[in-house]
Each structure stands twice: as structure tokens, then as C-alpha cells.
Design brief:
Elements lengths: L5 H22 L4 H18 L2 H8 L4 H8 L14 H12 L4 H18 L2 H9 L3 H7 L3
Helix pairs in contact: 1-2, 1-6, 2-4, 2-5, 2-6, 3-7, 5-6
Length: 143
């Protein structure tokens, strides 16, 4: 959705707020700041693990506000980062989201994946997940 008008800008903020409310609900909190930190961290750590092409395809489905967060600090010359271990992935999420432990990060990352699954096309999320090692994919979408 192009943001050429004030109405379009308001709609993209509304969409971002829907994502944020979904994130808070998945986390079981009313703390929107926590939900924001988790969603932001998740999107950026996930982005770092994707190819530039796949990151761009995912970003195209994000509301403009979240797309800006997604690309914040992005360095395409370092993509994809070779994060292969579950613990490394979760440590990065925990650090960026200011979470206490990897188990908190695992719960938060799975919650963020559920939010992402509700808001992007199934095919796109499947493409994203196919780029991840099995042990990372398993923590993001546990059975």
C-alpha cells in the first residue's frame, strides 16, 4: 500500500498497531513496550538469517512502519548471516528484545512466528522458514 496520502499513512500505523496488539496477545501481556521489543528483535534477527532476496520479499508484506524497523541497521553485504544453532539465534533475540533467558526468547520467537503467520501469505512464510536450519525452524514453529 503506497503511503502517498495521510489516510494511507494512518492505515499503515493502524496495521502496525494490529500486529503489536497480536504480539501482546500472543505473549499474554498488556505491556506494549515489551511486545514492540520482541517483535522488533524477532524481525531483525530473522532478517539477518535470510538472503537479501528473501528478506525483501518478506519486507514487502510488512506494514510500512514495521518495514522500517525490519530494515533498521540492515547491511546487505553481510546477508545471510550463518546462524545455524538454535541457541545462537535465541541469544540474539533475547539480547535485542532485552529478555531474561533463552527460554523466554524461545517462547517469544514462537509467538512472533504465529503473528507473522497471521499477517503474511502462507507461501511467503513457508519460503522464509525453508531458509532456516531445522533446529531454528523447530523452535519458531514447534509441533
Amino acid at each position: 500500500m503506497p503511503t502517498r496520502t495521510v489516510d494511507a499513512l494512518e492505515r499503515t500505523v493502524q496495521k502496525a498497531n494490529e500486529w503489536l496488539n497480536d504480539m501482546a496477545g500472543e505473549l499474554g501481556t498488556e505491556d506494549r513496550a515489551e511486545a514492540w521489543r520482541v517483535l522488533r528483535a524477532y524481525l531483525q534477527v530473522l532478517r539477518d538469517r535470510l538472503t537479501v532476496e528473501e528478506a525483501a520479499q518478506l519486507a514487502a508484506q510488512l506494514p510500512h512502519v514495521l518495514r522500517g524497523v525490519f530494515y533498521e541497521g540492515f547491511d546487505p553485504s553481510r546477508q545471510p548471516e550463518k546462524i545455524r544453532e538454535r541457541d545462537v539465534f535465541l541469544a540474539r533475540v533475547a539480547e535485542r528484545a532485552m529478555l531474561a533467558s533463552p527460554s523466554d526468547a524461545a517462547r517469544a520467537a514462537a509467538a512472533a512466528t504465529r503473528v507473522l503467520r497471521r499477517h503474511v501469505t502462507a507461501g511467503e512464510l513457508d519460503d522464509v522458514m525453508s531458509q532456516l536450519p531445522a533446529e531454528i525452524h523447530a523452535v519458531l514453529e514447534p509441533d
